[in-house]
Structure prediction request, 220 residues.
Amino acid sequence: MLRSFFEGLLLGLPFVFAVGPALFAILQTSVNKGFYSGLQLAIGISMSDILLMSLCYFGFIQYVENNTVQIILGLTGTGLMMLFGIYTFRKKDVSSPAKRKELNLKINWSGVFSEIGKGFGLNFLNPFIWMLWIMVISSGTAGKSKFEAVLFIAGVAIMIFSTDLLKSFFANRITVFLSPKVLLIINKVAGIILMLCAVVLFIRTCYTFDLLAVIRVKGM
Prediction:
């Protein structure tokens, strides 16, 4: 039965190289707010992954798989990414080296739920993440018992969470070598990338669900 767990670990390995809004959010948060804030964001992402994989496996995904719900998710996710990108781009205050060292030594309890919620929302509100997990779970759990399927999902989730932690750790480690000016540049670059991700998500949502055609039909 452990074979299913290791299959999940191997399947989660390619996500190490996945480039998307969640990756840039983890890197930017870890650089600016410390490792523990990046950890909280990674927890939110993993929670949404586990929820989506579970919904896919147990068949609940069919109730929210219609185009209307997916369009709402896509547009809401676009808005969230855009707001996060604008906030990151406009962020002008960066921590001093001493403050960043202090952030590495303590958990930001006041921001725990906001960071977890941010990570959860960025991932959960992307309809193409839903499509990804539908394909992964349908192929990865075929012919497996429920216990084996749970082990498979656990393997995938643990691999993704572990690699997100490594990204957060190393992103935070390099901050000791970065000046406040460089950190400001990182914020602006991360903000631009997140805004571009929002634009891409919007275009993909419109194209995939033929949203412009729907608007034209309703406008006639």
Q: What stands out?
A: The longest helix spans residues 180-208. The chain has a mean pLDDT of 81. Residues 2-219 form one domain.
